[in-house]
Amino acid sequence: MEKIIVVFDGFCVLCNKYVHWVSKKNPSKNIYFTNFESSFINKNYPELTLSDTVFVINNKNKVLKKSAAIKHCIRFLKINPIVKFFVLILPDFLLDIFYNLISKNRYKIFGKYDSCTIPKNINKSNILN
Length: 129
Fold this sequence. Notes:
With 129 residues, the chain is α+β, with helices and mostly antiparallel strands. The chain has one domain. Helices cover 43% and strands 12% of the residues. It has six helices and four strands. The chain has helices at residues 13-25, 39-44, 66-74, 81-89, 92-104, 106-110, and strands at residues 4-8, 31-35, 55-57, 63-65. It has a four-stranded mixed beta sheet, covered by helices on one side. Strand 1, helix 1 (13-25) and strand 2 form a beta-alpha-beta unit. The protein starts with a strand and ends in a 19-residue tail after the last helix.
């Protein structure tokens, strides 16, 4: 099974909810999580900095962002197959329009934590510090 890493904004309430949701829907536990402030990112991917996107690093060390990152994660999740199908067939440029709109306004709409966090209710062995 392919190991993938989700790099997310630990200050963002929406991003933390997304990480929790992905963790719950990933039965094979092949998705790992870290935030931009982690030692793992600072040491291995210092070029990744906090921005308006979630990053996914696939098993070939390719860094995906925005809708391409979301779609890559969805492939490994146990969710409604019809929803999965429609998300996966939509072109990235179309999904990126909605992604950009939400990501640029995420703090205003969903809120922001005072400190960088990782959700407490996910499997600890799937957290890269």
